[in-house]
Design goal:
- The complex is a heterodimer of chains A (480) and B (60).
- Chain A has helices at residues 2-18, 26-41, 83-90, 136-143, 160-166, 200-210, 230-239, 247-250, 255-271, 290-298, 312-327, 329-332, 343-352, 357-380, 421-427, 457-470, and strands at residues 21-24, 52-56, 94-99, 122-123, 126-130, 149-154, 169-172, 192-197, 241-244, 301-304, 383-387, 432-439, 445-451.
- Chain A is of the alpha/beta class and 480 residues long.
- The longest helix of chain A has 24 residues, at 357-380.
- The radius of gyration of chain B is 17 Å and the shape is elongated.
- Helices cover 35% and strands 0% of the residues of chain B.
- Classes of the chains: A alpha/beta (480), B mainly alpha (60).
- Chains A and B meet through helix 11, helix 13 and helix 14 of A and helix 1 of B.
Chain lengths: 480, 60
């Protein structure tokens, strides 16, 4: 009870500093904490028992508004628990807050971080910088120590970006691993719900609780998640073949981010020193640049591999824009549409109503080509390593559509490397883990991401966990 | 429901500098329409060999 009380008080006191909180669910938290205390009194031992958390405000939770971060829905109450929240309740967790988000998860393409009912997500590392979107509050609340962990969601980058910007660990599950029942739909074929926490191990505990079958979600795979035990995890880390494209950092990282990302590569090398065996595939025969040679010394097995040249940005935005505009057609054509905050978001949603069937279907058929390309890459690599974001968190007043800020549309003059990995990985429904690897010259967090084949979460967690045991980036905390 | 005019699928007209403020709603509307068209053009460039295309469009 004390932990729940203190967490709710802290959320109410500090949350507004980051615009991180939509609603503090104090009454519910105390009731769940009381049940957890009773269970602890019966000597029940479950990892999440009594631990307060926050959930992105696109997940329905009994007794609290569910605003989807959007003014037209500010008074919406959905009197049910989303499956992910119900599963956490059954695991003994304590819902302490609904967390702020970009309105409608940003499906129309917003221009400014202020595109939220709660205002711009402020980064605990520097409140004049953005916390990232669309799971803005989830990233800020974990980084700022308001909650131990949070639920976020990703359509294309909405767990990865706030994780990278806020210096927390985020896990985007395979499409269908976590039920989306009770979650706002932006894109039926892209949306995923996943945990954000301080470490990969903590993400794993949460994912184990929320993954699994759900008769209320026809797209749920029915698969469960269980992290590898210590010994198999160590063996998997040694065995893992890692693909990397050096240009992701050399050609695309900002100066602020570059130094920390380079350090991150070296640190990753350090954790894998036990196994230097090099099983580079045909793709890896291309000359590797100087920094990569150092990485190869310590990565368990290393292969150069890059995504094929496909228009990942146009692909993913055509899919979520067409689906999102269909889902929100009633809003777009209704009286409350103008209440949305971001003018560009409104323009994008309106325009998306006119995406032609042939273009949506072309995008969907090309997703098969993306999946095939990944399958080819995964013949020679177990995971793909890339940067979380190539830049550090941007100022909260800066427009998000400035050139160079969109990773899925790399500049044509540069080698694309795997900078389209967020869009591509989402198109193929692949899991990813985002984890901090240091700080840029501007003092803001920088992170890496690992992407694996469908349902490879146990390996992704094992690799990120090994990295985090060898480094301390994930233990750093912002000053209050 | 209001019927919208189908946009031309022909080649885009030469670009002229837009003098409207960057956050002007009418400018944003035009840019959003242009983005939809640009994305469509990119996607249509991708050729899929229909003789060997897998039988399903997409399965997550």
């Amino acid at each position: 009870m004390e932990l729940a009380e203190e967490t709710c008080a802290r959320l109410a006191r500090v949350g507004p500093r980051y615009n991180a909180v939509a609603t503090v669910t104090r009454e519910r938290a105390l009731a769940e904490a009381k049940r957890a205390d009773a269970a602890l009194g019966r000597r029940e031992r479950r990892p999440l028992l009594g631990i307060p958390y926050g959930a992105k405000d696109l997940l329905a939770a009994k007794g609290a508004p569910t605003t989807w971060g959007a003014p037209p829905y500010r008074d919406q109450v959905i009197d049910m628990d989303a499956t992910a929240i119900a599963k956490l309740r059954r695991a003994g967790a304590v819902l302490a807050a609904k967390l702020a988000m970009v309105e409608l998860a940003g499906g129309g393409g917003y221009r400014y971080p202020s595109a939220s009912l709660q205002g711009p997500g402020r980064n605990p590392w520097n409140t004049e910088r953005w916390s990232g979107g669309s799971s803005s509050g989830s990233g800020a609340a974990v980084a700022g120590g308001l909650v131990a962990y949070a639920l976020g969601s990703e359509t294309s980058g909405s767990i990865g970006t706030p994780s990278a910007y806020c210096g927390v660990t985020g896990l985007r599950p395979t499409y269908g691993l976590v039920s989306r029942h009770g979650a706002m739909a932006l894109s039926w074929t892209l949306d995923k719900i996943g945990p954000m926490a301080r470490s990969a191990d903590e993400c794993a505990v949460v994912l184990e609780a929320i993954a699994g079958p759900d008769s209320a979600d026809a797209t749920a795979s029915g698969r469960r998640f269980k992290p590898l035990d210590t010994r198999p995890a160590a063996a998997a880390v040694k065995r893992a073949r890692v693909a990397f494209a050096e240009e992701d950092i050399e050609d695309h990282a900002s100066e602020e981010a570059k130094r920390a990302l380079e350090r991150g590569k070296r640190a990753r090398v350090a954790f894998a020193e036990e196994d230097i065996e090099d099983h580079a595939s045909a793709e890896a025969k291309r000359a590797l640049e100087r920094g990569l040679a150092e990485f190869r010394k310590i990565a368990p097995k290393f292969a150069r591999a890059t995504l094929p040249a496909l228009p990942f940005g146009p692909l993913v935005s055509t899919v979520y824009a067409a689906e999102g505009a269909t889902i929100f057609a009633g809003l777009i054509e209704g009286e409350r549409f103008e209440e949305l905050v971001d003018t560009r978001q409104k323009a994008g949603l309106r325009a998306s109503l006119d995406i032609r069937a042939r273009d949506y279907l072309q995008a969907m058929r090309l997703r098969s080509a993306v999946s095939t390309a990944f399958a080819e890459m995964f013949k020679n690599a177990d995971v793909i390593l890339s940067v979380g974001r190539t830049i550090t968190a941007t100022p909260i007043t800066q427009a998000l559509d400035q050139p160079g800020l969109t990773a899925s549309n790399p500049q044509q003059t540069k080698r694309p490397g795997n900078t389209g990995l967020i869009a591509a990985g989402n198109l193929a429904g692949l899991p990813a883990i985002f984890f901090p690897c240091g700080f840029g010259t501007d003092g803001m967090p920088v992170g890496l991401q690992l992407v694996g084949p469908p349902f490879s979460e146990p390996l992704l967690v094992a690799l990120a966990s090994a990295y985090q045991r060898a480094t301390d980036h994930h233990t750093k905390r912002p000053m209050e | 429901m209001k019927e919208k005019t189908r946009k031309s699928e022909s080649a885009p007209t030469p670009k002229q500098e837009d003098t409207r403020p960057v956050d002007d709603p009418s400018r944003l509307a035009d840019e959003a329409d242009a983005t939809v068209e640009k994305n469509a053009t990119e996607l249509r460039k991708q050729r899929v060999p229909i003789a060997t295309e897998p039988p399903t469009v997409y399965r997550p």
